[in-house]
């Protein structure tokens, strides 16, 4: 084969990334097609985030990425290089449960528990969003955006948690648990 007809060089299919996971840097070589969820579960052994629908519709895989809620089944791990990832395993600190985790226990805000890790991470994320003044669909539209924290009423909590499905129907207790943390 002449030099002008050489086969094209094959692009790499794996890359080295460093993720800050639950406060610890983790450097891995990941397949470009691997989702963050699969890397967390299969490569790092963090099985709290669940593969529910694998289409970003149920919220069972919710984690915090740079402090914001994200469906880890929709994120390519290779694109997360340098980000801070908090999973449900990283919410507790110093041997103490995160206040949201404790409230879920106190309120019996789970049944089968499958969705609970995503619900917990989503709740932690919504606290930051509301504190930063980010409105939701049910926030009073006359309220200027970014003008202080949004009050987390039961209606606000239900709306902000609506991306996390619970097949068991523990929604009333989930809302009550999140409300408990806001007091």
Q: Main β-sheet: number of strands, strand sense, barrel status?
A: 5 strands, mixed
In CATH, the architecture of the largest domain is Orthogonal Bundle
The DSSP helix count reads 5
Number of domains: 2
Based on Cα principal axes, name the global outline.
globular
Query: What's the rounded overall pLDDT mean?
Result: 93
Low confidence ranges: none
The strand count comes to: 5
Percentage beta strand? 5-15%
Pfam family, one: Fer2
Keywords: Iron, Metal-binding, Oxidoreductase
Organism: Streptomyces ficellus
Domain 2Fe-2S ferredoxin-type: 15-91
Characterization of this structure:
The chain is α+β, with helices and mostly antiparallel strands. The chain folds into two domains: 14-90, Beta-grasp domain (Ubiquitin-like (UB roll)); 99-182, DNA polymerase, domain 1, CATH 1.10.150. 28% of the residues lie in helices and 15% in strands. The protein has helices at 36-43, 99-107, 116-131, 154-160, 171-182, and strands at residues 14-21, 24-31, 62-65, 68-71, 84-86. It has a five-stranded mixed sheet with strand order 2-1-5-3-4, sandwiched between helices. A hairpin with a 2-residue loop joins strand 1 (14-21) and strand 2. Helix 2 crosses helix 5 (171-182). The chain is globular. The mean pLDDT is 93.
């Amino acid at each position: 084969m002449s030099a002008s007809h050489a086969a094209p060089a094959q692009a790499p299919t794996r890359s080295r990334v460093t993720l800050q996971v639950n406060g610890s840097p983790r450097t891995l070589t990941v397949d470009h097609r691997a989702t963050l969820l699969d890397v967390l579960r299969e490569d790092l052994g963090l099985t709290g985030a669940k593969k529910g629908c694998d289409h970003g519709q149920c919220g069972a895989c919710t984690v915090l990425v740079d402090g914001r809620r994200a469906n880890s089944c929709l994120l390519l791990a290779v694109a997360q290089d340098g980000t801070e990832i908090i999973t449900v395993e990283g919410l507790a600190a110093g041997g103490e449960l995160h206040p949201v985790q404790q409230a879920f226990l106190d309120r019996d805000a789970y049944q089968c528990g499958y969705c609970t890790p995503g619900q917990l991470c989503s709740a932690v994320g919504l606290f930051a969003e509301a504190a930063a003044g980010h409105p939701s669909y049910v926030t009073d539209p006359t309220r200027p955006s970014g003008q202080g924290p949004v009050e987390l009423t039961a209606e606000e909590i239900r709306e902000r948690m609506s991306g996390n499905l619970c097949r068991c129907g523990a929604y009333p207790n989930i809302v009550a648990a999140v409300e408990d943390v806001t007091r």
